[in-house]
């Protein structure tokens, strides 16, 4: 199976509003990422744009609907759609989330949490196996943002993801914002969580902004992974610490709500490049 | 992640059922498997997911039906869309197709009964969404039709994959055009039935108001009737039909696809 092979540079999520700006200039980012589900129509502008962008950009295909943490195996029709997209666009990487979104035939259109136990571990590993068999390539599994905790959970997330990767041969997508948000929402130390993350399996990074919801109670606000703001400073600091441990990694800036103009996104990507460049130099030395 | 608090010795409920049951039901209690954390109460934490689910589905419907939203306003639309989403949640993660049943739902939604044109306005927007994602095909040009071998009367035209037709008892094309800014907002000169031709010959979706009889002609052609027979059917129902004009609209807007091979030229009657 082909290894994920995105360049270890900064990439941006593609939004149709930016198409003209992107093709008007030479490629300015290391890769583009799209949500697979937005390209599941038969034709029209989405495919025309993606085919054009694919000519001179590396591509990360990022799924949001496979429900890998769900009780049912990945939906066969959805896997077939993903297989067609992989065949048509030959993305350098395919990734999905450690989450569920389907139950009993209903699709909830959100990344929903699951407890980390030997039972859910076995289920997730089976589903990752099924995805990799259907696509004929290893996938990247992304750590979720989380807001809740489950009674009787027996495994920390890092150990859970390490074991999924070991059993299935999949790689990991480390969303540093998700790790930060999840740690803070649990009252844990993000740096300590990063130290426990199975970095050896990480092949891509996500960075995004979050919002702080101030509730009626005193105490720390709940952090919401809303992809609607610049990457927060503590997340940049955590990212810099990550690169010191791993060396350069393909790094996506996600900005999906209140999307700013393309030049603003390019500035965020440049900020990631400024940390990736010394990491590449260190690796070369 | 490592939880700071000691864990209760309960078995984890690995089933997604308790959470699923509480996501779309605002009156459902907090799912039992969740446990408290420092800071915000579990109810408020789970509310993030409840809000994500419902607001995501409402946003998907608002994206599919922008003119409908403009007519009723954001708050009314959100309430109507949430009512639909609770009754008809998506069955597939291919969300591009979600919401096709919304016009029918709105037609039976009592609070919207004062706007009799709203369901057809939504049907027009649904047709546009389907056309936007339809398969690609080169449209048939007038020149290709004129230069084809065989008698024009016996020609069978093949519908373009994006072709959609809507005949409404309301002036739905004009209302749509005003709501999306293709026409200046203003009073309607006449409240009369309108028919919409929705096409997508290339990447942009086109909406055109067809004259009376236009839909009958387009439907007969799309159903595979030869041109002469389709024209006869349409003229029987609409004696005033300007056949050359309507045909040139249909072809000019890309309603039919280019012929593939010589077999389709002069198909047998």
TrEMBL record, chain A:
Domain of life: Bacteria
InterPro entries given in the database record: MbnB/TglH/ChrH, Xyl_isomerase-like_sf
Pfam families found in the cross-reference section: MbnB_TglH_ChrH
Similarity remark: Belongs to the UPF0276 family.
Protein name: UPF0276 protein CR165_18975
TrEMBL record, chain B:
Origin: domain of life: Bacteria
Pfam family, one: DUF2063
Provenance organism: Teichococcus aestuarii
Gene3D superfamilies: DUF2063
Name of the protein in question: DUF2063 domain-containing protein
Domain Putative DNA-binding: from-to ranges: 19-106
């Amino acid at each position: 199976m082909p290894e994920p092979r995105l360049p270890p540079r900064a990439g941006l999520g593609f939004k149709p509003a930016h198409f003209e700006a992107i093709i008007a200039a030479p490629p300015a980012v290391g890769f583009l990422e799209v949500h697979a589900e937005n390209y599941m129509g038969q034709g029209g502008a989405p495919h025309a744009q993606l085919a054009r962008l694919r000519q001179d950009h590396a591509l990360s295909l990022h799924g949001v609907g496979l429900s890998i943490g769900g009780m049912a195996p990945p939906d066969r029709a959805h896997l077939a759609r993903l297989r067609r997209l992989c065949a048509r666009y030959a993305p350098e990487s395919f990734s999905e989330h450690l989450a569920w979104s389907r139950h009993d035939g209903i699709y909830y259109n959100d990344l929903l949490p699951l407890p980390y136990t030997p039972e859910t571990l076995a289920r997730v590993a089976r589903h990752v196996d099924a995805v990799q068999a259907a696509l004929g390539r290893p996938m990247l599994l992304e750590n979720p943002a989380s807001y809740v905790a489950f009674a009787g959970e027996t495994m920390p997330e890092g150990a859970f993801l390490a074991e999924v990767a070991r059993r299935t041969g999949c790689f990991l997508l480390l969303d540093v914002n998700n790790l930060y948000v999840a740690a803070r929402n649990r009252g844990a130390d993000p740096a300590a969580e990063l130290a426990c993350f199975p970095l050896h399996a990480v092949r891509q990074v996500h960075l995004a902004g979050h919002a702080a919801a101030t509730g009626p109670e005193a105490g720390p606000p709940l952090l919401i992974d809303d992809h609607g703001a610049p990457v927060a400073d503590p997340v940049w600091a955590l990212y810099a610490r990550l690169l010191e441990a791993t060396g350069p990694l393909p790094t996506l800036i996600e900005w999906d709500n209140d999307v700013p103009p393309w030049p603003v996104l390019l500035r965020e990507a440049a900020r990631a490049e400024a940390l990736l460049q010394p990491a590449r130099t260190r690796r070369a030395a | 992640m490592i939880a700071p608090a000691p864990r209760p010795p309960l078995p984890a409920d690995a089933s997604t059922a308790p959470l699923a049951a509480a996501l779309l039901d605002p009156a459902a209690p907090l799912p039992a498997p969740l446990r408290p954390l420092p800071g915000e109460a579990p109810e408020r934490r789970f509310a993030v997911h409840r809000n994500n689910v419902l607001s995501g589905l409402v946003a998907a419907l608002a994206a599919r039906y922008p003119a409908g939203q403009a007519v009723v306003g954001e708050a009314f639309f959100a309430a109507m869309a949430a009512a639909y989403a609770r009754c008809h949640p998506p069955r597939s993660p291919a969300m591009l197709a979600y919401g096709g049943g919304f016009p029918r739902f709105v037609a039976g939604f009592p609070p919207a009964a004062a706007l009799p044109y709203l369901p057809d306005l939504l049907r027009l927007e649904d047709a546009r969404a389907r056309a936007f994602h339809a398969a690609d095909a080169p449209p048939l040009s007038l020149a290709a039709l004129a230069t084809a071998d065989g008698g024009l009367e016996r020609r069978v035209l093949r519908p373009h994959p994006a072709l959609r037709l809507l005949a409404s008892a309301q002036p739905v094309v004009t209302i749509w055009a005003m709501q999306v800014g293709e026409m200046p907002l203003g009073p309607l000169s006449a409240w009369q039935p309108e028919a919409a031709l929705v096409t997508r010959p290339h990447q942009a979706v086109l909406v055109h108001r067809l004259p009376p009889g236009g839909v009958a002609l387009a439907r007969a052609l799309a159903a595979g009737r030869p041109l002469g027979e389709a024209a006869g059917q349409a003229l029987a129902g609409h004696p005033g039909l300007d056949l050359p004009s309507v045909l040139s609209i249909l072809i000019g807007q890309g309603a039919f696809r280019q012929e593939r091979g010589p077999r389709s030229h002069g198909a047998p009657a």
